[in-house]
Amino acid sequence: MAIPLITHPDIAAFAQARVNLPSDRAKECREQVNRLRERLETHIAENPGFALVKMLHAGSVAKGTGLRTLNDLDVAVYVKKEAVPIRDQDLVPWLAARLREANPNLKPEQFDESQPHCVKISFRGSGLDVDVVPVLYEGAPNDLGYLIDKDTGTRLLTSIPRHLEFIRKRKKARPDHFAQVVRLVKWWADQRKAANPNFKCKSFLIELVIAYLADRGHDLSDYRHALEMIFSYIVKSGLEERIAFSDYYPASKLPAPTRSAIEVFDPVNPANNIAEKYSFFDRDALVRAAEEAADAISEAHYATTKARAVECWQIVLGLSFRG
Ligand SMILES: Nc1ncnc2c1ncn2[C@@H]1O[C@H](COP(=O)(O)OP(=O)(O)OP(=O)(O)O)[C@@H](O)[C@H]1O
Ligand SMILES: [Mg+2]
Known about the structure:
Blueprint: H1 8-19, H2 23-46, E1 52-57, H3 60-63, E2 72-80, H4 91-102, E3 111-112, E4 119-121, E5 129-137, E6 145-148, E7 155-158, H5 160-173, H6 177-195, H7 203-215, H8 223-237, H9 280-302, H10 306-317
Parallel strand pairs: 2-5
Antiparallel strand pairs: 1-2, 3-4, 4-5, 5-6, 6-7
Bound molecules: adenosine-5'-triphosphate and magnesium ion.
The site of magnesium ion has 3 residues, from loops.
């Protein structure tokens, strides 16, 4: 049998050159969030009783799964539940006002209230924008609080630090490869979203599906093989298989089958299906796209010319993949 013309080193080199957020930029991003956090901590220390409790870096840069195309940073601000305005529509302006108080060094207009469920702190020129999402907190252990979903405004009982711990555990079990494979699949999803704005495949879903497969012993160290394995799993399962983890609760805590098209449970809270908002239509589109990717990878495997193999891989990784 002929040797495949595109193999692991080609995918790894592409990831390094095109997909991954370079480590120096990731460091700058973390420092930017740290500065905000330190300022908030100082303000809290000087103003006991302040309504904001703490700030945690929550998104892909915190998890080490950020892409080069990253356009904003995610932070969660824990807020005292009893201090929050009753009406939902008052929450964002209220949070923006508190953040302005804590950051007198920034201009008031840098705190953008135009998004429905988060405050965007804009750092034009000096860094990436920071999306601040509130977590309504009543002092529960393990930082469990109600995260307001940035996109939908839904209140989700969860714990950001435990999510970070969950991902760190998987990264530790597969140094480099877990995060790299997550980034490659996120990259694939971004290509699909660029082609079809209705395509849904959020990063946290990708991370949990890959964590599930890694926990079951699948190897991630060869990226060509790992991608084929992941897409084939999505096709075979049709995403109809329930995905859950026993890090923080036993399987017995999970609900009876729900009517959701996809069931991927928050590792922290068995009542939170993180894919609850996906319709049957969304699921089918996701499975079809995975099928197309799996077929392309398998065709590339047997391609007899490099040009054809590259063409196949471009279906998965986009036109910037040149082999
Ligand atoms: N449905 C959800 N339930 C609980 N927590 C969630 C949910 N969606 C997102 N989160 C939390 O928000 C964090 C960031 O969300 P998500 O993973 O989708 O974006 P990201 O990692 O910042 O990726 P990127 O911005 O690169 O797309 C997650 O790590 C998780 O802690
Ligand atoms: Mg993000």
